[in-house]
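Researcher: I'm preparing a figure for a lab meeting and need a structural model of a single chain. I don't have an experimental structure, so a prediction will have to do for now. The sequence is pasted below. Please return the structure as tokens so I can convert it later.
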Amino acid sequence: MTDAELRAALREHAYLEGDFVLRSGRRSRYYLDKYRFETRPDLLRALGERLAAAVQEHEPEAELIAGPELGAVALAAAASLESGLPFLIVRKEAKDYGTSNRLEGAYRAGQRVCLVEDVVTSGGAACEAVRALREAGLACSTAVCVVDREEGGSDGLARLAVRLRPLFRAQEVLETAAN
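Model: Understood. Here is the structure written out token by token.
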């Protein structure tokens, strides 16, 4: 699948119009429903390939991939399968039973990790995940996402010294919709 075909598929399967409240609390006339592209094997496979390539290109020293729950877990797993790198699941908060972990998966303090995200708007969830990774002693300076809505997420991550590397920008997906 080419980039243009993938972008068109994201538009076709995940682009919704209406009045939506985003995780950031902002309102939007459109929504990119990550579950509509993450639950399709053909799109998940293509995204896993591109995310793995982006991790290799932008964070070649990465020993792990991490994905915040719930939205980016399938993407992190797909990128892990493609790259051969193990992945971690970053919980929103530590569970209050069993191991009480905030991070699920095996890791050692000092390892370098690349964060994988789905759709980034303000970057709130990504920033929280970076903080959790760093609290566990992991090094994280790169985040790769499927779509950057270009609404401040890159700046929010930059304040944590993390560079956001999107596969696509929202405008590219929106322009595809016009064609």
